Amino acid sequence: MAQLPQTFFDALAVRTWCGLALETLGRAREEIDAINVYPVADGDTGTNLYLTVESAVAAVEAVFAGHAAGSEAVVGPGAASSGEPTLADAARAMAHGALIGARGNSGTILAQLLRGMAQVLAADDTARADGQGLRLALRHAADSARRAVAHPVEGTVLTVASAAADAADGAEGDCGTVARAAYDGARTALAATPRQLPVLERAGVVDAGGRGLVAVLGALVETFTGERERGVAGSACTGPFGDPHTRGDAAEDPQKAGELLGECTDGAAAPPGQEGPAFEVIYLLEAGDAAVERLRERLDALGDSLVVVGGDGLWNVHVHVDDAGAAVEAGIEAGRPYRIRITHFGAGDVHTTGAERRPRERAQRAVVAVVPGEGLAGLYTEAGATTVLARPGEPPASGELVQAVRRAHAREVVLLPNDADLRHTAAAAAEQVRTEGIRVALIPTRSAVQGIAALAVHEPDRRFDEDVVSMTSAAGATRYAEVTVAERQSWTMAGICQAGDVLGLIDGDVAVIGSDIAVTAETVLDRMLSAGGEMVTLVLGDDVPDTVAEHLEGRVREGYLAVDTVVYRGGRQGSLLLIGVE
Contact, 533 vs 563, CB < 8 A? Predict the structure, then answer.
């Protein structure tokens, strides 16, 4: 990233730091994933940190773009202007982006670290902060992150963050001096993590989350000095094979990094399993402070690894539990949860005692599915699938699908993209994981209702090819439709629609243009059932009242004998209504 070093912490420094942190984590991601053994050995810490920072980068870039566009509108195209956001604008955007995009335990804690820094940097609404301001920001970040974790454990990213803040406290000078002191303090603390956490010592690695934070602080040093810390992306092994401080060139060569990790773990393909609950539950939550305090108490009683970060009415909740439904229900009682992600850690690796711990074994078969809403994510998860949430306007990248397949931890995987536009993305992900020895079958489902039909006939105990054929047949026999609202005037197969019109799409093409949701949906349903059918599936979005489903169910009962109807709540799924006819 070609940027001049920054002397002070201003908006441009925030932008530069975020970009460099993303690049650094991109280089170190696979290595950090490989050493992820705590709190659960699910091999995704590096990826989660990368995705969290990626969201922060997008938010900061959006603020810069917005200011540039606004300035151009005032002074005219091509005119000189100071269309840059303030430090407060950029810092708040960084924190907000990390909060809404936080993934996993370490990503959630990193989001709180960035939020803690932003609270100091944006406090006085000054144009820039000096070394003293950076010291205060690092201190507040470490303290607020520790408070966000229900039961802090030493030897983790929290320890590394506190050590960085302690080292910065004793540094005198500009931002570059303070950043380097924090980085050196973090590295020293990271090297000591195996002596604080026995599971790290047994695996011969340092803490993965702390390793990621060292990478982020290395990017901070580069922001203010222009010098890349070669030890930032190095191997994180410990023990007789070397101090992590001396292994800085490993990540410049991924193969070398892999060889070094192989030495440290005696070639083990997977790290030891952990004791703990079976599910990771993460969601954003709109709620007040008092409700969140009650939520903390309830979730703390349900499970462990509880981290609740955020404020000002928006929170990111992370917890490991055995009862994922209860964790989500607790969020519903506290406020409005959304972007719910539920991950099953896999049977056989999270409930073993110390004497029984063993490398995690792969399941024989799993289903990985992209789903458009939180309600369907819960439904798919209950059916045993590993889910990837496709938020409105934010389709998952191939890397997210690859990570989901890895999380499923199976020898054979059936992949359901549930969107015609995701077929190539899913195919790229399937090709990548096949190189890792996983057998993957991509069923080209174009809607979540086709995925439901495929999942309904899934039988993991029969031969893989037979299961795939049966699931493909069920999906192909399901016609799909959706009811949505037009965003702008456009030509369609059914004529010209205006912004705000209700559109009924059948098999991807606009078939009906109307003004009422229930009437449009009924017309769509009649057209689909005119060709026959035995089962109707309705998936309602958040904005659709239950009366619409009741109306459609009544229409099916009255007009189509022997046709059954099933209704689900999809949550924030983009479309008003999804319809499937089998």
Answer: yes
Tokens 């979730």 locate to 299
CA 413 to chain centre: 20
Using CA atoms, how far apart are residues 5 and 225, in angstroms rounded to an integer? 5
Q: How many CB atoms lie within 10 A of CB 550?
A: 12
Tallying the residues shown for the chain, one arrives at 582
Contact (Cβ atoms closer than 8 angstroms) between residue 304 and residue 354: no
Q: Which residues pair with 304 in a beta bridge?
A: 320
Q: Which residue has the tokens 């056989």?
A: 348
Q: Which of 175, 99, 173, 107 is nearest to 137 (CA)?
A: 175
In the numeric block, the tokens 């441009």 are attached to 12
Tell me if 419 sits within 8 A of 371, measured CB to CB. Answer: no
Q: How far apart are CA 514 and CA 519, in angstroms?
A: 8
pLDDT digit string, tens, across residues 40-97: 776 778 888 998 999 899 999 999 988 776 554 443 444 334 568 899 999 999 999 9
- Secondary structure (3-state) at 279: strand
Dihedral angle over CA of 258, 259, 261, 262, nearest 10: 120
d(CA 134, CA 138) in angstroms, rounded, equals: 6
What pLDDT does residue 263 have?
33
Using alpha carbons, list the distances in angstroms from residue 147 to 136, 142, 162: 17, 9, 12
Residue among 333, 384, 373 nearest 569 (CA): 373
406, amino acid identity: R
Q: What is the pLDDT of residues 349-401, one digit of tens each?
A: 333 333 333 445 778 899 999 998 778 888 888 888 999 888 777 788 777 88
